[in-house]
Each structure stands twice: as structure tokens, then as C-alpha cells.
Task: inverse folding
């Protein structure tokens, strides 16, 4: 399926600031960027870079003062993923899985899986296999957490969300990830452009490593795995926020559009 | 029913210490102290006092050095409470309840009800009346929290227990109280001598204010309302720990015995 | 000195709500209410009550729907307190102090003194007496915490403020109280009308029990003990917020005025 | 300088367990492994692996039952690092530093730098350059935190340590890292074999990225940069604990020896 993405972000630069944006579509397997443009007005020097062995494409800018707008557009072809649930039932034992997956079992800033071992075991331990466990986790997050904008901030973590029972897509994702890791199931944070999201915004969900592959789950149920274009994955939002900046700046406008289009 | 209580606590005094014990049976309505003795060896001066409008009987000691043992025995007649559930179904509106009950709706050190409003509403909001809500809370605490000694300390609070899913009787009580208060149901902490408790110890549970009376619930299910002698009630354990002390001391032994005896 | 107080609070009643206001001047020792009026528009039935052995005057209202405004005015004569620092140097040992003071050494919802024992000992343990310790605590809170409106909420506690280093008067007070209690110095929360406060609002500070009396400290330095009229004291703000309500309501306006006037 | 290392760790295997040990000396720049041996008794199959672009050498074992002991010995030549403080005074602006360093500015599980921005700015913001700031941070951690074994666990984070004021080397390191990152100074966790450590154990400290290089600081002052052999660095201990395991096991013995030897 094809997706047309258009993203426009405007900033006032309060003090000289270094910006690292995570808004470019990832060159991940299964999706092909057919066309893409980055236009900054006024024209400003920017760099694109990728950390070693990562698919995350950072956009780096240094701005001294003034205001600017980034307009990003892309057309992306995404192969439909058909998950054969049978292949997910028998997960590899940890000793045999790719070592690169291991960092995604450790707790991270927003996913304190180390505190949730007994919690996860009691709530989800009885499901018969890892796939059923992750499905149950995603359903439980959907059912117990209410989607309410403006109730959380960039310090909110999975344990906070268990208590407050409210949050936005990043909080749903963090809680899902933390509960998977608490059961020794590798899980990672995923940001995406999701088709026809309402309200339109950059979306976050999570992937669990099941039967030797990363499988996406959206505990908000606002989108679903085959209706999204991947931007970045990471241990959690602390590594791939839409914008990480050093300096002082104010976001004055953000428009995100993603539409699924017929072939 | 009659209960025979015998409590023996030994301490090493590391530095001069002021002790406030909460181990004497309360002169609460519904229970009569038939006989009682307090023996301290070696003999030490002690005082008993009660805060204004409280039934809590504090035992105050100041000890400079050495070791000591308190032996407390009591025989107590407790009237059986028969709760007529029908009287609990229609709770007074908050505007009409006794103002003295109001402090037990506020959050307290170990019961952060202010953080659990949505949690309590989502889990227990649909039960048809306050009595059913409190029963559901007590059952939920029993089912979700595991009784494990040594996993919590005197700083552990209700929110910690929701995350860790383990604790001892005080933690069960704090969680029950916090969830009641989050639904605007007054609730208080209760310490008791519970008959035939295994292992024998001073017990903690909670009371909710329903239909104009305090009704006891034991979310640990280790005892039950008619098998206990009341020691003290308070907002939470921060106010009525078995021992509050200022100085430095080590508890070297604690034996608690409570037996129900035939008339 | 005389103070003229005028307080106007307006609310929209979203759902039937029971209101408990803490805005009436306390009948505490040292201050005399010369005149006072409470006018609610539209006229609504209200009750004033006081918990046993408390000076806190609650104003209780039950409102079904609509909007209302409370106008409270008072003229209060306050005796100047001259603290003789010499009387504060030798505090009574805990064994000898009035038992009614003891509850103010226990931790409370917003003052987790139990977690701050070592912190308080390391920072303030070396000051030569309790008065010097409390002065040092109040100065330290002033110096380390920044007064920033809108950064905290009704769940914020002393430990949160140590980390965030920002807050409003209630947060400064909670931190001062927690550190006193961590050193076994009784301390309580105090709400006041403070003369010429900028911006005008109901103010919060704290009192420590020193040498047998309660002595006020204002760690925000926005006011000072002889420029305030007492409203209420309590373990912390969870017990005496300006408004505790059960229902659903929105504050649409709040004007507080307090002026010191010549005899 | 040369170091002789000998490490012996024994485990009881309670249930089938996958072990990932971080005890092998790193092949980091500046240190050369002259000889090395890994002996497991009884003999068990193990694998060594390294994550892409990492110097961390994991030792992987899967054990079904029984007990085992790992004996690791190594002789390592470490080049003395002479830090020319002048080179550290002028740090590169963030826009110019190696992107691979950026992940070490983000908060991590045990280093909640996002919560400590104002804290760090108020305490250390006035030091004239990044080198002076990090030195001040390391000194402050040494002075305010007490080294007390057994008071923290694997969930303890920098914010916890600010409150409790106690911990072990990992807690000192986490706090140092969090404060650096809160000032936008990249910082990472470092585990080492430290010569003549008392009591002997695997040590933890931290590195800050200053003037284009990683510079080590030991806020415990139990060792110092030129008396250590590097094992691993990472965002924090959640990624490089001595042992990460999945299963159930008990450590029955741990002997670590590291001696500096003459050429």
C-alpha cells in the first residue's frame, strides 16, 4: 500500500539551539521511499545522519535566532505484513536469539520493567505462549488506560501510567514495552506516520520480538500495523522523541498528515 | 467472645530513646477489657496517655541504656458484630456525615488516594453502592497482592504496592484505604490482635465508613472482623505503628499471642 | 496590628458538589476577629463547623448546579509576636512535650520525613540547637527552590520538590516541614492571609515546635510571621487546602486581598 | 602499568537459567590484555559475544541445573592517561560532536536527567566550563552521598539517591551521570577492576565527554582513573550489570582481586 506523508513543524528560536528531529521515514525493511523532500524556510543548513547500525535518520540543525518551518513530504510504498500467528507461538529461547535483540529486554528510562516482574507474571503469566502474552498485554493497556491529551509529560513512565491510568500514545507504548520486558520478551518503541489518525499527529506504538521477528502492536487501537509508515525504533521515547533539542525553543505549529492511497 | 492476649517485646537500647508503643487494647465501643497487666523488666517508669478524642492508648517510655522487655497480657470480651448489609447500601451523602469522619477521606502518607482517582473509578466505579465497592476493593487487593514478608519497609505506600504486587498486612490495608478514599469513601487503618494468626503478630486491616458506621475488612483474609481485638485506628500506619521511637534501638524479640476462648 | 481581609471566590458547579472551604480566619490565640462577614451570591445555605480540638473553621456548602461567589471580609487584630530566641535554644526532650504535638513528627502525605532522615542529618545535623536547625532549613529551602507558579499540583510532595527545585508556597512549606520532622522536630503546615502579598493569594508557610511553642517560618520570604493572619494549621495541605470538594466544579475567579492597616 | 585480575563467581542454578556476564576485560583503547583465561567448573559450554560497535564482551551460558563456578584471570597493561586539563576547557558544541556520543545525553533507566535540569543548573550551572562542572558534580556526589552497602537495590535510580543520600558505587556513578546529562554533557557508566579496592569487588564509576574525549571520574574516591582496568561502558547499569540473567539463580560466592604490579 502507498502512503502520502506531509509534515510541517514551525519553531521560534528563543536562544541558540541544536535540533535533532526524528521525522524522516525510516529505510526499514518492508517499506520503500518513492519520493521525499525536506524544505526548510527560511533556507537553513541541515544534516541528515544515522547512528551506526541504526535505521533512525536524524535531521540535525543549528539555529541561532529567528523562526523556521520544516516541511517534509514523502510517498512511501509499504509491503503488507501478514503475520502467520503459528510462526509466533514458539519463540526462540533467549540463549539462541540474536544478541542485538538483548538490549531490548533491559529496562529503560520510561519502561521500568525491573519493577514490574511480579505484576506482569500475575497478570499475564498464565497465557500459553509469548504471542498470547503480548496480545493480552496490548489489550490490557487498551482497556485500563484512558487516552487523554495533556495529562502526561516527557518524564512520565510506565509505572506512572499504571497508577494514573491515563496518557497518550507514547505512554500506552511505554507501558506495553515495560510489561513485555518484565516477562523477558524483547520489546521496542516505534514511532510512525499512521494513516488517517485522528487527530493527526506522529504516532507511537511498540514491537515485541516473537518467534524471531519484530511484531508491531498498537495498544491505543488508533491505528494498526498495516496502516503505518515507520519512522524510528528505539528502547523508548527518550531516544527517539520527535525533537530532541539543546537550547531554548518553542514549537509554534505542527501539522502532520498521512493518507493511504490506492496504488 | 473472649480473647486472651499476650504480647512480649524486647529491645536493646543503643542510644537514649523515647518509645511510644501502640500495643494496648483499645477501649473502643464493643469490646471490654476484663483484665490487663503491663510488666516491664527491669522495672522502668512508663506512662500511658491518649490523644484528645482518640481511643489510641500510647505507652510512653524513656530509656537511657541497656535492654528491656515489655510483657502485656489482657483478657477482652468482644461483642460479636453482625453487619446487616441492608443498612450499608445507602450511605449518607458527604454533606450529612459527621465532620469527624472527613479527615479519613484525605490522602495520607501511605495512602495516596489523590493519585488513584481514575484507577479506582475504572476498577470499582461500576459497583452499585459503596458497600459493594469496598467489598470489591478488598477482594481485588487480596487477589492481586501477594503476601510476602520482608519485601516492604516503613516507607512503602499504596502506589508502591500496586506496582510491586507484594507486601504484608499493613501494605494490604494501605492499598484498601487508598482505593476507598479515591472514591470519596472514608477509610481508616486498624491494628488488632487477631485470634490464631499464623504466624502470630500484631495484625493490620482497614475500616470503611458505610451507612453511618465503620465496617472492618481484612484484605489479607488471614483473619476476619469478629476474630480480632482492636488496638488502634488512624489515618495510616505512620500514626499508629506498633512502635514509634526517637533515638536508637533494636528489637531483639517479639512474641504475640491471641487466642479466642470459650466463655 | 490590624489587617483588613477580603476574599472573593467564584465557582461553576459542573455536577452536584459538596464544598469544604478553609478561608475563614482562625480563632487562634494572639489574633482577634473584630468584624467578619460571609456573603454568598446567589444566597446559598452554608454551615460553619470545627473539628474537635481544632481551630480550623470549615465552611460547608452543598450546591446542585449553577454558579456562585463567596465574598468573605474580616478585620483582624493580631498581637505582635516577639520571639525571644533564647527561649528557643533549649527544646524540651520529646518525652516531656505535650502529647498533642506528637502527630506533627510523623510523616504525612506531602511530607515524607521518613525518607529524609539521612538527608536532614547530613545537611542540618551540625547546627547547635533546634532553633538554628529550623532557621537553616528555612534558609536552605529559600535558596535551593525557585518560586515558579504552575509547575506543581496537588499531588506534589517534599521529595518531588527536592528533585524539581521549583514550586509555590505550599511546596516550600511541605519541604520545610518534612526536613524538620526528619530531625524529630514537630512541624505543621500553616495557611494565612499575608499582608501585601504579590501576587495576592492565600499564603502557606510552616511552624516548628521549639522550646515549647509553635514558631512560624516563611521559607518563600514573601511574607513574615508578623505580617500574616492565621487561617488554619494541619499536618499538611491534604488536610487544609483552600477548598476540598467532592463532586465536579471549576474555579472561575479568585481575588484575595489582605492589607495591614494602622490602628 | 600492569594489573593482575582474578575473579571467581559461584552460582546455584535454581531453575534453568541463561546467564550474561560482564566480567571480561574490555579491548578498549589504552589497555592491552597480555594474558587471559576463563575456566568454568564443572566444564560448561559458553560463548563470548560483542554487540555491534560495542567493546563490551558478554559471556553467555545456559545452565539447566546444579552449581558452577567461573574463574576468570587476566593480566592487563594499561597506558597511563595524563589528562591535560587545558584540552578539556573548550568543549565542542553539541552540533559538532560525534553523533555516536549523542545517546549518552539522553536520560536512562537509572539516570533521570530529564527531572534534574533545574537541580543541576542551580547547583553546578555557575562553574566556568564543562570540565569544572563535572569535577564539581563528582565532588558533590562524594560529599553528599554516604557509601553504605545493602541500602540500595537494582531498581535504585539517581533521584532515589538524591533523597536517600546513601548507596554503593553504582549509585554514585548513576547520580554523577544524571547530573552531567542534565547539563547536556554526555556521560556514561563504566565498570572496572580497580586495584586494591577495599572491600574487593567489581567497581563502577563514570565518564564524561569533555573536549572531544571520554574522561573518567570516580565520585566514591575509592579508586581513580589510572588505577583501573575497564570492563564495560554503557548508558547505565541496566545495560552492563555484572550479571544479567533470565531464570532463577543464587550467587553463592564472589571473589574479585585486582592488583597493580610493577612492570
Result:
Amino acid at each position: 500500500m502507498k502512503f502520502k506523508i506531509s509534515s510541517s513543524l514551525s519553531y521560534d528560536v528563543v536562544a541558540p539551539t541544536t535540533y535533532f528531529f526524528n521525522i524522516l521515514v525510516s529505510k526499514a525493511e518492508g517499506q520503500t521511499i518513492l519520493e521525499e523532500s525536506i524544505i526548510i524556510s527560511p533556507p537553513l543548513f541541515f544534516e541528515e545522519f544515522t547512528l551506526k547500525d541504526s535505521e533512525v535518520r536524524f535531521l540535525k540543525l543549528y539555529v541561532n535566532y529567528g523562526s523556521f518551518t520544516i516541511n517534509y513530504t514523502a510517498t512511501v510504498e509499504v509491503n503488507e505484513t501478514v503475520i502467520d500467528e503459528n510462526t509466533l507461538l514458539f519463540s526462540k529461547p533467549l540463549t539462541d536469539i540474536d544478541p542485538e535483540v538483548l538490549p531490548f529486554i533491559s529496562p529503560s528510562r520510561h519502561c521500568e520493567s525491573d519493577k514490574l516482574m511480579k505484576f506482569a507474571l500475575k497478570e499475564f503469566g498464565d497465557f500459553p505462549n509469548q504471542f498470547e502474552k503480548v496480545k493480552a498485554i496490548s489489550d490490557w493497556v487498551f482497556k485500563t488506560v484512558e487516552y487523554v491529551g495533556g495529562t502526561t509529560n516527557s518524564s512520565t513512565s510506565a509505572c506512572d501510567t499504571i497508577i494514573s491510568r491515563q496518557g497518550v500514545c507514547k505512554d500506552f507504548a511505554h507501558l506495553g514495552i515495560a510489561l513485555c520486558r518484565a516477562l523477558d520478551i524483547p520489546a521496542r518503541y516505534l514511532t510512525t506516520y499512521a494513516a488517517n489518525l485522528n487527530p493527526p499527529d506522529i504516532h507511537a506504538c511498540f514491537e515485541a520480538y516473537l518467534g524471531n521477528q519484530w511484531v508491531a502492536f498498537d495498544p491505543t487501537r488508533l491505528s494498526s500495523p498495516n496502516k503505518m509508515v515507520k519512522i524510528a525504533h528505539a528502547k523508548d521515547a527518550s531516544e527517539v522523541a520527535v525533537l530532541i533539542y539543546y537550547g531554548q525553543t518553542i514549537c509554534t505549529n505542527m501539522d502532520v498528515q498521512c493518507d493511504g492511497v490506492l496504488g
